[in-house]
């Protein structure tokens, strides 16, 4: 069974919520990314989203844009990220999802990417600029290789469309908390509770909230209404602040553990 | 078959590669656009502003002295350079702002490279009293300070974009980020036949007035259709506007001219059709300058309006089907052509349009007299005088 599906079955049976941590591959470098993923696992993270850097990350705010830029400057490629996953898999069984814009996948070849990602030990793929309408061929390859394809529900998604997205999404459903781009925000909007309740009437697939969730308090609040919480920019920012520290993995383990506690509390 | 299909595809190109937050909006926009196109009052209003505000119809001018130098060619210029704000861009911004008003949007955003689309957007926002925010690469803000001042004078807020390469492609990224954040009240006026569906179809529709007029004017003058249509291609809106109304006139050849910058053998060019691969950028699948990993590369052209690593998906489709041919002209060749038109006709072309003109001598050597060519003179060169001074007079 796919590790993401297995994880949610476990979490549900124990009545816990998922904490999903995002980081940009290759920032500060791929060796550090490997150590960081392992540190996240020790911190109790349920699923790690590994971001593939792209030259034009139009769904991302300044923090992840800058991380992508730094990573590309280091020469990070999709092929090197798949090798990284292979190395991580020798040491860990933590569920891994790759978050990538569509062009690197299209360029790599959708079928080849699905085959190689699955072989490397990737469990799910999240492509923010590939809506349902354009995802036909990819979904077929991903399904064949046993990869989950996570689709998004946005605040603007109407009920009819939401049903289609929910039915197509596998692994979990990425619930965008706010119309906008990734990045920490002061407050997560209050109407989100009603929207999640509505989404729950459409599907029993896990609903995980991301975009704008930055602090343990926000993560805790989201965990009360959703099946999982995704934190990205706040983690990426903290990695960058500590990028030169020799004990970067330990520091990040402590930082992420605070978010994990908030979600599990 | 008529393109695009119901999902905005032109053969293998086009589509909607955008975050989910924008999907509902694009579907609504498409509906509203289709409704407007069937509404005689919208068409009437659009025609009114094109005539009374933008200055249409533009002339079709037989460039006799230029033609003499080319021997085999009889050249006609479609004078989009005479339009209000100095280029064809205003055809599209007028169409889109009328749609924005129908959709009750109160805020308009746009991206701009050279500033021509920004100026044309700022103008129509002032005309209708809508708030206007223009994203422009920080580097372009420096290079095109006069256009920045124009936009500000008309009440637009110009936001310099400091991310990425600080040019048009990053301005477009930032405009999309603004849009996704302010979906409720904001209308995004894209300046070319690129971006997610329905933009390529919508901009084509609004720019088609170029070809519709030119076709009638040419028929009246020559009692036949032109042999060749010639236009520069950055994103490709003036070329599409000229070509599309001639699509079924299969005897009329289409030639699009891209920017070869320092030369197609270098990395410093903007020739997405001549040299690019298939890829996805800014919501559409088309040809694109990219590296082996699918990372988008920087474009270069002396003309800021052609300095874009992508191109409209319908052009990629025309190339794939052979309906149009695409060639490329270097910075130097474009400058020489600008000088040639200035000296033979007393018309100073925009450097974008000068790329189309620069192909005329090459074309002249390939064809037999008399071959008629209709060139879209998409803009005037006032905005480029600093560049021209620097390169031609070494000032």
What does the model show?
The complex is a heterodimer of chains A (about 260) and B (about 400). By secondary structure, chain A is of the alpha/beta class. Chain A has a single domain (about 5-265), classed as Aldolase class I (TIM Barrel, Alpha-Beta Barrel), CATH 3.20.20.70. Chain A has 12 helices and 9 strands. In chain A, strands 5-4-3-2-1-9-8-7-6 form a 9-stranded parallel sheet. In chain A, helix 4 (about 80-90) packs parallel to helix 6, helix 6 (about 110-120) runs parallel beside helix 7 and helix 10 (about 215-225) packs across helix 12 (about 250-265). Chain A is globular. The two termini of chain A are about 30 Å apart. By secondary structure, chain B is an alpha/beta fold. In chain B, strand 9, helix 11 (about 235-245) and strand 10 form a beta-alpha-beta unit. In chain B, helix 4 crosses helix 9, helix 5 runs parallel beside helix 7 and helix 10 crosses helix 11 (about 235-245). Chain B is globular, with a radius of gyration of 19 Å. The interface of A and B includes residues 61, 102, 106, 128 and 152 of A.
Summary of the model, kept short:
The complex is a heterodimer of chains A (265) and B (395). Chain A has 265 residues and is of the alpha/beta class. Helix content of chain A is 51%, strand content 14%.
User: DSSP strand (E) fraction of chain B?
Assistant: 15-25%
Strand order of the biggest β-sheet of chain B: 3-4-14-9-10-13
Strand content of chain A: 5-15%
CATH class term of chain A: Alpha Beta
Number of strands of chain A: 9
- How would the global form of chain A be characterised? globular
Question: What's the helix and strand layout?
Answer:
The complex is a heterodimer of chains A (265) and B (395).
Chain A: H1 3-13, E1 18-24, H2 30-43, E2 47-51, H3 62-73, H4 78-91, E3 96-99, H5 102-108, H6 110-120, E4 124-126, H7 136-144, E5 148-150, E6 152-153, H8 159-168, E7 173-176, H9 192-202, E8 207-210, H10 216-225, E9 228-231, H11 233-241, H12 248-264
Parallel strand pairs in A: 1-2, 1-9, 2-3, 3-4, 4-5, 6-7, 7-8, 8-9
Chain B: E1 9-10, E2 13-14, H1 20-37, H2 40-54, E3 60-62, H3 64-70, E4 73-79, H4 89-102, E5 107-112, H5 116-128, E6 131-137, H6 138-143, H7 145-153, E7 157-161, H8 168-181, E8 186-188, H9 199-207, H10 209-222, E9 228-232, H11 237-243, E10 253-261, H12 272-275, E11 277-281, E12 284-288, H13 313-321, E13 324-330, H14 331-345, H15 351-358, H16 360-366, E14 371-377, H17 385-392
Parallel strand pairs in B: 4-14, 5-6, 5-8, 6-7, 9-10, 9-14, 10-13
Antiparallel strand pairs in B: 1-2, 3-4, 11-12
């Amino acid at each position: 069974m796919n590790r993401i599906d297995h994880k949610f079955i476990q979490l549900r049976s124990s009545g816990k919520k998922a904490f999903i941590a995002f980081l940009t591959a290759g920032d500060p470098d791929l060796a550090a990314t490997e150590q960081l993923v392992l540190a996240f696992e020790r911190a109790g993270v349920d699923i790690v989203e590994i971001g593939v850097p792209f030259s034009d990350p139009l769904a991302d705010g300044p923090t992840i844009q800058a991380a992508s830029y730094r990573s590309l400057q280091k020469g990070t490629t999709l092929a090197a990220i798949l090798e990284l996953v292979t190395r991580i898999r020798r040491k860990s069984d933590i569920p891994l999802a790759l978050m990538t814009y569509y062009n690197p996948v299209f360029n790599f070849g959708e079928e080849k990417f699905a085959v190689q990602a699955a072989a490397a030990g990737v469990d799910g793929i999240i492509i923010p600029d590939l809506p349902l309408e354009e995802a036909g061929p990819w979904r077929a390859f991903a399904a064949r290789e046993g990869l989950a394809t996570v689709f998004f529900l946005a605040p603007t998604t109407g009920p009819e469309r939401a049903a289609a997205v929910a039915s197509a999404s596998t692994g979990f459903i990425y619930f965008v908390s706010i119309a906008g781009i990734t990045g920490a925000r002061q407050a997560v909007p209050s109407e989100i509770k009603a929207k999640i309740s509505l989404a729950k009437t459409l599907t029993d697939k896990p609903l995980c909230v991301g975009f704008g969730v930055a602090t343990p308090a926000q993560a805790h609040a989201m965990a009360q209404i959703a099946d999982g919480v995704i934190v990205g920019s706040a983690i990426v920012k903290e990695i960058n602040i500590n990028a030169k520290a020799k004990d970067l993995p330990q520091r990040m383990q402590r930082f992420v553990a605070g978010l994990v506690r908030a979600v599990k509390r | 078959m008529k393109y695009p299909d119901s999902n905005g595809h032109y053969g293998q190109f086009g589509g909607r590669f955008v975050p989910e937050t924008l999907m509902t909006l694009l579907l609504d926009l498409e509906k509203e656009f289709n409704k407007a196109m069937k509404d005689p009052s919208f068409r009437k209003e659009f025609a009114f502003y094109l005539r009374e505000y933008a200055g249409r119809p533009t002339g079709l001018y037989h460039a006799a002295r230029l033609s003499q130098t080319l021997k085999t060619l009889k050249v006609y210029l479609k004078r989009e350079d005479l339009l209000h704000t100095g280029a064809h861009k205003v055809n599209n911004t007028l169409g889109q702002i009328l749609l924005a008003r129908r959709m009750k949007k109160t805020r308009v955003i746009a991206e701009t490279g050279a500033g021509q689309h920004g100026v044309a957007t700022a103008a129509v926002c002032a005309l209708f009293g809508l708030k206007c925010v223009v994203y422009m690469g920080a580097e372009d803000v420096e290079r095109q300070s006069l256009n920045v001042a124009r936009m500000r004078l008309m009440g637009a807020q110009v936001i310099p974009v400091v991310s990425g390469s600080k040019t048009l492609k990053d301005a477009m990224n930032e405009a999309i980020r603004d849009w996704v954040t302010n979906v409720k009240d904001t209308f995004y006026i894209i300046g070319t036949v690129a971006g997610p569906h329905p933009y390529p179809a919508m901009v084509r529709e609004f720019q088609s007035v170029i070809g519709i007029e030119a076709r009638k004017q040419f028929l009246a003058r020559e009692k036949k259709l032109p042999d060749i249509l010639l236009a520069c291609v950055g994103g490709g809106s003036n070329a599409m506007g000229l070509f599309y109304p001639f699509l079924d006139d299969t005897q009329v050849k289409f030639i699009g001219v891209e920017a070869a910058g320092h030369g197609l053998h270098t990395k410093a060019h903007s020739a997405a059709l001549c040299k690019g691969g298939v890829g996805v950028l800014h919501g559409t699948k088309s040809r694109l300058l990219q590296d082996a990993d699918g990372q988008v590369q920087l474009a270069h052209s002396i003309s800021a309006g052609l300095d874009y690593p992508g191109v409209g998906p319908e052009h990629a489709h025309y190339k794939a089907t052979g309906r149009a041919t695409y060639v490329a002209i270097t910075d130097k060749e474009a400058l020489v052509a600008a000088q040639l038109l200035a000296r033979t006709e007393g018309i100073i072309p925009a450097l974008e349009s000068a790329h189309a003109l620069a192909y005329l001598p090459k074309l002249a050597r390939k064809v037999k007299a008399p071959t008629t060519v209709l060139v879209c003179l998409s803009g005037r060169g006032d905005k480029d005088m600093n560049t021209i001074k620097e390169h031609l007079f070494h000032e």
